Amino acid sequence: MFILYLLIFLFGTIIGSFLNVVIYRLPRNESIVYPSSHCTKCKNELKPYDLVPIFSYIILKGRCRYCGNKISVKYPLVEIIAGLMYLVLFIYFGFSIELLFYLFLLSLLIVIAFIDIEHKIIPNKIILTGLIVGAIFRVLMLNYGVWDYVIGFVLGGGVLLLISLLSGGGMGGGDIKLMAMIGLFIGWKLTLLTLFIAALLGAVGGIILIALKIKTRKDYIPFGPYISAACIISILYGYNLLNLYIKLITG
Fold first, then answer.
1. Whole-number mean pLDDT of the chain?
2. Tell me: the pLDDT tens digits for 18-72?
3. Which of 58, 132, 156, 186 satisfies CB 3.0 to 4.6 Å to 179 for a cystine?
4. Residue of 107, 118, 132, 195 lying closest to 159 (CA atoms)
């Protein structure tokens, strides 16, 4: 079993390495296929031994082999997060169609979170890709019900759209589209829970960032990473949390 878990983790880090390419190139309107991986500073093409997830960063001591410039710690961080979360989802869902579905969603959320942190945008291409895949999956899984997910789509985007209208644009359009996409993936019950958890995480995260003077009250704080984290929490523990809440209010 340990070997299987290790393989799943390593597979996740490989996917994470590809996600790094998407995170870097997509906001710059560059192809994620061509040219091959290269140093963003000196443009030297990277060899296979420069691209081993996590280990290459450690061996190279966080610097480019060719020009010596620092490599952002973001790269191994994305690979570690992807590897760990792929393993967690595998442990939770096992070998199943659901696993593939949620691994795909996880990969999108990682890309969205890191792009939003760095560029303060959520690319429409990622959202559109998620909507297409989510819709196809729900059609294929029609026997398991579809209205929960249609309502999730409308509710996820609708709640944030309403907040945006009432607050005079306090909620970004990317966040609205992201929640609509998530609603299509996880259904309306977990969508509502995701909104609640995201608001809670956002409030706590904002307070910490302001307390540490990383941000000020006037600074824009990306909400996409909090939505992404809340979505994963809901997928893994959502129904347990909902059942606990029902028990608390019913005594």
1. 91
2. 999 999 999 999 988 888 888 888 888 888 888 899 999 999 888 988 888 899 9
3. 156
4. 195
> In sequence order, what DSSP letters do the residues of the chain get, joined into one string?
-HHHHHHHHHHHHHHHHHHHHHHHHGGGT--SSSS--B-TTT-PBPPGGG-STTHHHHHTTTB-TTT-PBPPTHHHHHHHHHHHHHHHHHHHH-SSHHHHHHHHHHHHHHHHHHHHHHHS---HHHHHHHHHHHHHHHHHTGGG-SHHHHHHHHHHHHHHHHHHHHTTS-S-HHHHHHHHHHHHHHHHHHHHHHHHHHHHHHHHHHHHHHHTTSS-TTS---SHHHHHHHHHHHHHHHHHHHHHHHHHHH-
For residues 139 and 169, what is the distance between their CA atoms, to the nearest angstrom? Answer: 34
Residue with tokens 């006037």: 218
Q: Residue range 121-136: average pLDDT?
A: 94
**What confidence category does residue 143 fall into, taking pLDDT thresholds of 50, 70 and 90?**
low
Tokens of 249: 């209010």
Name the region of 54 (left: φ>0; alpha: ψ -120 to 50; beta: rest).
left
Distance CA 224, CA 200 (A): 13
**8 Å CB contact between 122 and 177:** yes
Cβ 131 vs Cβ 106: under 8 Å = no
**Does 126 score more than 90 pLDDT?**
yes
Per domain, the residue ranges of the chain are 1-95, 97-251
Q: What's the pLDDT at 230?
A: 97
